[in-house]
Amino acid sequence: MISVQPVTETILALVPTYGLPFLFGIAVLAASGVPVSSSLALLVTGAFIQIGELELTQSFLVALAGAVIGDQIGYQIGLHAGNAVEERLVRKPKRAAQILRAKEFIDRFGGVGVFLTRWLLAPIGPITNIICGASDMRWLRFTIWDFFGEVLWVTIYIGAGYMFSGNLEEIATLMGEASWLLIAALVALGMGIRLLVVLRQHRNEAKKA
């Protein structure tokens, strides 16, 4: 039996009512930057697959297509209007912090960073799409890493919903909190490494003097 808190009631109603079109739409919107809970929709989808209300292969392919198309929309926005969009987003402190984290991550890891922000660091995925377009990352490189990352994201969340259909709210909260903690840890690690590099440079300059 599917057991969830009130916050998931709307999605619980929409997934079986509108099925795959709803799943596709919410995946596109979330990946392109609209603040809707696609991860929760995938968890609910997995739960309905488990009880036989939805079909696995169709649900997987529809969610994957929606996510990839949404990512492409974000990339094109960044490619054609990246600076203007960024200037608008940085006015909001939360968005400014996300942009900074995403930039640092992509600068450090490139295509691998795109892959990781599809599933492991999903909260900064939509911002990353815009940054990749604005930074002139090659479209093919972005698309390849994006595709395989989204395959993993859809697999993880539908699988989690399938296996833990009785605790969707708790699983959604846990996975969301884990992503943000990992983002914070990686940013702290990057700043620490940068500080060590600067200190080492100063030490070498002092020795030469």
SSE blueprint and pairings:
Blueprint: H1 9-31, H2 38-50, H3 56-89, H4 93-109, H5 111-119, H6 125-134, H7 139-163, H8 168-208
Helix pairs in contact: 1-2, 1-3, 2-7, 3-6, 3-7, 4-5, 4-6, 5-6, 5-7
Number of helices: 8
What share of residues are in beta strands? under 5%
Kindly report the average pLDDT value.
83
Question: Based on CA inertia axes, which overall geometry fits?
Answer: elongated
Overall radius of gyration: 19 Å
Q: Which percent bin holds the helix content?
A: over 70%
What summary fits the major beta sheet?
none
In the predicted model, the low-confidence regions spanning at least 5 consecutive residues are: 1-7
Number of domains: 1
Order of helices and strands: HHHHHHHH
User: How many strand segments?
Assistant: 0
Structural class, from helix and strand content? mainly alpha
C-alpha end-to-end distance: 72 Å
Provide an overview of this structure.
- By secondary structure, this protein is an all-alpha fold.
- It has one domain (6-208).
- The chain contains eight helices and no strands.
- It has helices at 9-31, 38-50, 56-89, 93-109, 111-119, 125-134, 139-163, 168-208.
- The longest helix is centred in the last third of the chain and has 41 residues, at 168-208.
- It is elongated, with a radius of gyration of 19 Å.
- Residues 1-7 have low confidence and may be disordered.
What attributes does this structure have?
elongated; 82% helix; 209 residues; disordered N terminus; mainly alpha
